[in-house]
């Protein structure tokens, strides 16, 4: 079994910064893409940013230039540095990892439990 545990959420004023972390543990041989998604009340879950194990990144247009995703493959951890936060960034943030339990095995998607980010105006 695999677990992803997020940390770093909280309450921040508009214009402030937060850094989220997500550590994966368990039966892991390797992790392909890792990413951050968010879900605001009454809205669908949406992509924030993803990063491959080679470090190739992809961002939602709404966060480009403000958020930076990174990962530490040795620690099976993904981060997102969120700067210039806006009230519309308020959501539950979830991390996701595509985990291979053995060499050549299938990549299985796992989700974290989510962490709340609230940006006050």
Radius of gyration: 14 Å
What is the end-to-end distance? 40 Å
List unreliable stretches of 5+ residues: none
Tell me what portion of residues adopts beta-strand conformation: over 45%
- The computed structural class is mainly beta
Number of helices: 0
Average pLDDT taken over every residue: 97
Question: Percent range for helical residues?
Answer: under 10%
Question: Topology, please?
Answer:
Elements: E1 2-7, E2 10-13, E3 18-26, E4 30-39, E5 46-51, E6 57-59, E7 67-72, E8 77-82, E9 91-100, E10 108-111, E11 115-120
Parallel strand pairs: 2-11
Antiparallel strand pairs: 1-3, 3-8, 4-5, 4-9, 5-6, 7-8, 9-10, 9-11
Could you give a quick summary of the protein structure above?
The chain is mostly beta strands. The chain is 0% helix and 58% strand.
């Amino acid at each position: 079994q695999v677990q992803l545990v997020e940390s770093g959420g909280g309450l921040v004023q508009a214009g402030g910064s937060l850094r989220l972390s997500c550590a994966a543990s368990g039966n892991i041989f390797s992790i392909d893409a890792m990413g951050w998604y968010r879900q605001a009340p009454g809205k669908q879950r949406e992509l924030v940013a993803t990063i491959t194990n080679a470090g190739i990144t992809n961002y939602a247009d709404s966060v480009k230039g403000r958020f930076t995703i990174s990962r530490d493959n040795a620690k099976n951890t993904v981060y997102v540095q969120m700067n210039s936060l806006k009230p519309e960034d308020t959501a539950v943030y979830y991390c996701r990892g595509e985990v291979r339990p053995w060499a050549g095995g299938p990549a299985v998607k796992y989700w974290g439990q989510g962490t709340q980010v609230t940006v006050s105006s």
